[in-house]
Structures are given as C-alpha cells and as structure tokens.
Design a protein that fits this description.
The chain has a single domain, classed as Glycosidases (TIM Barrel). 42% of the residues lie in helices and 16% in strands. Bound molecules: 6-O-phosphono-beta-D-galactopyranose.
C-alpha cells in the first residue's frame, strides 16, 4: 500500500462563485454580470445563478462530501457577497450569517475549512469603476475585505489564501478573452500581475497584524503551476521554455516565497518597455510579506518551442512573442477538456519546491479530471462508474508520493472537485466531481471515485 505522511490532508476544492448560486447576493461579480448580459457565451446557456445550489444545500452537501472521504474543503468567500459598500468595507449581515453557518457546518462534519479570498470573482462595480486589479486603489480595498474575513471567521479558519490562480486572471481577462472584461493588452497584463502580487502582500500584512506569528494560523497563495518543457534541446526552444517558466510560474512563485521577482524576467520586461509601475516601498512590502504555505493547482504541463518570429512583433507586446505552444507527438490527452495528462510533472513540481523554494510546506490544492456527458457511464441507480477518474488520481498521487519520499514538504491532496460544480464559460460541460449533481433535480449521488476517495482517505493511502 502507498502510504502518505500521518498529517496528510485529504480534501476537495471548489469556489464560492462555482457552487453557491447567486441567491440573496446584493452585488454581482464579473461572471454574474457577464452572464446576465451575454448568456450565449456560456455553454448551453447555463449561468452561475444556481450553480450546485450550495447556498441552500450546504448542510446536505457537506454531509455527503464527508461520506466521500473529504476531510478538508477549500472554498472561497465572495467579495461581492460579503461586502455591502466596497469603499467603506461594511458587511452584509445575510452573507456573514451564511459563511458562519457554512464554516460551522464544516466543523460539525469533521471537515477542516481552507478559505480562499479571490477565485476570479472581482465585483463588477470595481471592474467598471477602476479596472479591478489594474488599479492599486483596488489592492487596498481588497486587503480591507480580507481583513474583514479574518476578523469575522478567523476564530475557526486556520488556513487562508490570498488568491487562486492569478495567472488565469491574466490569461482570461487581459490576453486570451475567456474572462470578463475580455481585454487583449499584454502590457496591462504585466501591471495586473504586479498589482495582484502587491494585493497579496498587503493582505498578508493585515493577517500578520492580527495574528503575529501564531503557528496555528497560516496564510498562502494558490498557484496553477504548469512546468514548462522545451520541445527540443535546441538553444531557441530552451530559451522559449525559460521565458515560459518565468512568465507562467516564477512571476508569482518568486515574490510569494522568495519575496522578489526573478531578475531575468525584470530585465526582459524592462528591455521591452513593459515593466510594471512600482515603488521601492511596495517592493519592500512584497519582500517582507511572504507566504507560510503554498497551494499548487496542477492539471497539465506547458510544452513550448521557439516562436514563429514572422507573425509576432514587439509592437503589440504579448508574452507569447517569446514562445509557441508545442503539441508533443504521442502525448496522452484528456480529449474532453483538451489538456495533456502528464502526472510526472507533479513530481517535478515537488522537487522544484523542495530545491528552489525553501522546501516550503505545500499541498495540491486542485487536481482532477473533467469529463463531458458523464451520464454515459451512469447505471440505473444514478451511480457514475468513473474508473478513468480513479486512475487519474492514482497516477498523480503516485508521482506526488515519489516527491514526498524524496523529501518534498507536501501535506495534502485536494481533488477538484467534491460535487460537480458550475464552471466559468464551460458551465457544466466538463464534470469533475466525486459526487454527481443532477442540475435539473439537484439530486446528488456519490460516484465510484467518491467511494475510492473515501477508502483512500480513511486508509491514508491506496493499493497500487
Ligand atoms: C481551475 C480553476 C477552477 C476550475 C478548474 C477546471 O483553473 O481554479 O475554478 O474551474 O480549473 O477548469 P474548467 O472548469 O474550466 O474545466
């Protein structure tokens, strides 16, 4: 049996906007707004209004998740739900009651809460008024919201996260148009990246003012790490991979853990005339307020080759003037999602964190397999027989285990996700859950993967 360390956390991840539904929300986030104005953009026209109905079903949902062996749950508090007035940072009492009830119900079910503060869900008012994280003023408003969360819920929540996947905000909202406001502006994406790192540092500063160095409380960030692999050993391909690694991973990892930006990245951005606007005071804050714990979302690697120079120019600066994506022959694909399946990268991440990032405590904060039309695999009792998902988790856990055996300080595995949830533009096309959600009846049924997860979580390991 492959056994994991005794303090290993077996959990699941979701987010407020993808599970709660918009019930009783006073404000819209960018997705609520985008859907209300352009529903056709969303798969099957399904929006975030009901999601998996967690707002109404949280008690039953949490009990069911516990039955599927989920002993820790990462979700998020929605800024656009909790706060009444964004400038004054006053709270909405219905939302306070809701999140209090959720946290209490988690603890009653023996589920450890891990709370994230931003899962792509900028309040639309702040996006329209200030450009969201394009503005440094919004980084202060964000830290204020975070502080409210610590004060309201910090007596019970020990693990906090400042952001989920900031890189996806850049890709979606500022480069490749899959998040509102659908801008295409490379230089602006560079500034947004900087401002998010700054917002994270400001949030950590508020946290430390409240808790000092209380060992019982930890704050971190969740990054989607996509190790960059070069298509060949040629100098050009390797340079492309080096930039891709800087841009996709180190731009967030380095400030979060080492407190500074990679020199090479700064050099390139400066040379290209797109370096972020910064002050020494801000850099000092980023240097001081580093994280205690890292969450790693891992789905797929990043394979790159040297760019086709002819079609790209410095005039319209985009990060991909430095690389092209590369489709490796023979790669194993999750065809439904279009992502390569490459568990070995999880081992590489483990070793990278061990050797280059102070062997900081970390955990897999998302990993999972999205499959469309899962009713194909459902029996007459509504149980989905999802061996493919069990194999996916096993293969990734084996690689993770190898990294842990070799000294990487990883202490948990959170599957994406517990209950099938709504997803950004994909709505319910790809299902990821250990538990199926029938979106018409809201009946929720544990899949085979949920039974396997329970056994694995109870045994702290599995038979290979
Ligand atoms: C991650 C996000 C999640 C989730 C997941 C699956 O990037 O943090 O919110 O959605 O990807 O992606 P998708 O739902 O688009 O298939």
């Amino acid at each position: 049996m492959l056994k994991f360390p005794s303090d290993f956390a077996w959990g699941a991840a979701t987010s407020g906007p993808q599970s709660e539904g918009t019930f009783k929300k006073k404000h819209q986030n960018v997705f609520d707004y985008w859907y209300a104005n352009d529903p056709d953009k969303f798969y099957d026209g399904v929006g975030p209004d009901t999601a998996s109905n967690f707002f109404n079903d949280y008690k039953e949902d949490l009990a069911l998740m516990r039955k599927a062996g989920i002993k820790s749950l990462r979700t998020s508090i929605q800024w656009s739900r909790l706060i009444d007035d964004f400038e004054k940072c006053t709270v909405n009492q219905d939302a306070v009651d809701f999140y209090n009830n959720v946290i209490n119900a988690m603890l009653e079910n023996g589920i450890e809460p891990y709370m994230n503060l931003c899962h792509f869900d900028m309040p639309v008012e702040l996006q329209h008024k200030y450009g969201g994280f394009e503005s440094k003023h919004v980084t202060d408003l964000y830290a204020g919201f975070a502080e409210q969360c610590f004060k309201l819920f910090g007596d019970r929540v020990k693990n906090w996260f400042t952001f989920n996947e900031p890189k996806v905000i850049l890709d979606g909202a500022y480069l490749y148009q899959f998040h509102y406001p659908l801008k295409v502006d490379g230089p602006l994406s560079v500034q947004v990246a900087y401002n998010i790192n700054l917002a994270s540092a400001k949030t950590i500063e508020r946290f430390r003012k409240l808790y000092g160095n209380d060992d019982d409380k930890r704050i971190g960030i969740i990054l989607n790490l996509t190790p960059a692999y070069s298509a060949s050993d040629s100098k050009e391909d390797k340079e492309a991979a080096e930039f891709a690694e800087l841009w996709a991973n180190k731009m967030f990892l380095d400030p979060a853990i080492l407190g500074c930006y990679p020199e090479k990245l700064v050099e390139i951005l400066k040379r290209d005339g797109v370096l972020w606007d910064y002050t020494q005071e801000e850099l000092d804050l980023i240097a001081k307020e580093t994280i205690d714990v890292l969450g790693v979302n891992y789905y797929h690697p990043f394979r790159v080759k040297a760019p086709e120079v002819s079609s790209k120019s410095l005039q319209d600066w985009m990060p991909d003037i430095y690389f092209d994506e590369y489709e490796m022959p023979g790669r194993v694909m999750n065809v439904d999602k279009g992502w390569e399946i490459f568990p070995e990268a999880l081992y590489d991440i483990a070793i990278n964190v061990r050797d280059n990032y102070k062997n900081i405590p970390w955990f897999v904060s998302e990993n999972g397999m999205g499959v469309s039309r899962e009713e194909r695999f459902m029996d007459e009792n509504g149980v989905v027989h999802d061996d493919y998902r069990i194999n996916f988790m096993k293969n990734h856990l084996k690689e993770l285990h190898r990294g842990i055996e070799e000294g990487s300080n990883c202490h948990g595995y959170f599957v994406w996700t517990g209950i099938d949830c709504w997803s950004w533009m994909n709505a319910y096309r790809n299902r990821y859950g250990l538990i199926r959600d029938d979106i018409h009846t809201q009946i929720k049924t544990i899949k085979d993967s949920g039974r396997w997860f329970k056994e694995t979580s109870d045994n702290n390991g599995f038979e290979e």
